[in-house]
Amino acid sequence: MGNDRPRARDIGLTPGGLSPGRFNSITDVRGVRIGQKTLIVGDDIRTGVTAILPHEGNLFQEKVPGAIFVENGFGKLVGSTQVNELGEIETPIMLTNTLCVHRVADALIDYMLAMPENSDVTSINPVVGETNDGFLNNIRKKAVGRDEVFSSLANATEGPVEEGCVGAGTGTRALGFKGGIGTSSRLLSGDLGNYTVGVIVQTNFGGDLTIKGAPVGKVLASLSPSKKNEDDSQKIERRNTGDVQKLGSVMVVIATDAPVGFRNLRRVAVRSALGLGRTGFTSRNHSGDYFIAFTTADGSRTGPSGFKANRKKLVEEEEELTNDAMDPLFLGVIEATEEAVYNSLFKATTMKGHENHETEALPIDATAEILRKHKAL
Are 347 and 3 in contact (CB under 8 A)? Predict the structure, then answer.
């Protein structure tokens, strides 16, 4: 969707051994919808917002089990303490840029309070995360606000998800190239439980791109005329100040339909970081690296009073998975996270923005050639 650049699987790149879902997207988890608003205005606004809705109903009245893992906390994630205290998510999850987090949170509160069933509500815990897109976007203009939030929520749909330079990924960079929004999923069929796990990422982090063990980033850097003769100290300086951003962050949102509670959702979120590691991700001192996990399992929703929400509308509650049954979910989230990162890079296009800064897209043909040489395709 969105442009003619391929996703990872379109060139034969298949990370891991599990199969993806129908759309190879977080929306393969039943009920999950994604909405986005992209802002590309003039020569300096390159930003947006991405909304993740666990189900189509009123999330405050039908909360979903959730957990958050913070790998490195140099960032802004509104609502995280209550999620981890109560193990529940009661609003859509929103992603945007650093200086718009609180504008988005305020708009999300308005959205939730306006629902008729919430007319007596006096406390809302919005969940809003970010990465800093200030290299390509004039972030001080704080371009994302109420209109963009309401638009992203209104256009949220199931099915294929637009990736690359869209929504909260419009102005981001990752692993030395143009980053963005990416998604993937894994099916845990048959003996693995017949569950689905899906991931959506907002990539904006540093490191040397690695794909199935192939040193793609290093090889591409060596092919660049301006970088061929660099010594190690020059490479380090460049990565800290130029082509690979000094500040780097990532937001990862994980959905599953497996019946798991807060503790095991957090364990799933922790494993997602292993998928990032496969791509060359490095968690730096100035990284905001956040992982949000939730389940849409039947019978798992709770209402404001803590009792099961709309019990008559839900099928009988499934028994929560035991610790010994978690391994397939761990593997699934690792693989889906890895592929989601690749999709964010493959689908992103070269972008010029604020102060005439430019970030190039990952060159697909050259990447494929490197992968073939390393027998990764």
Answer: yes
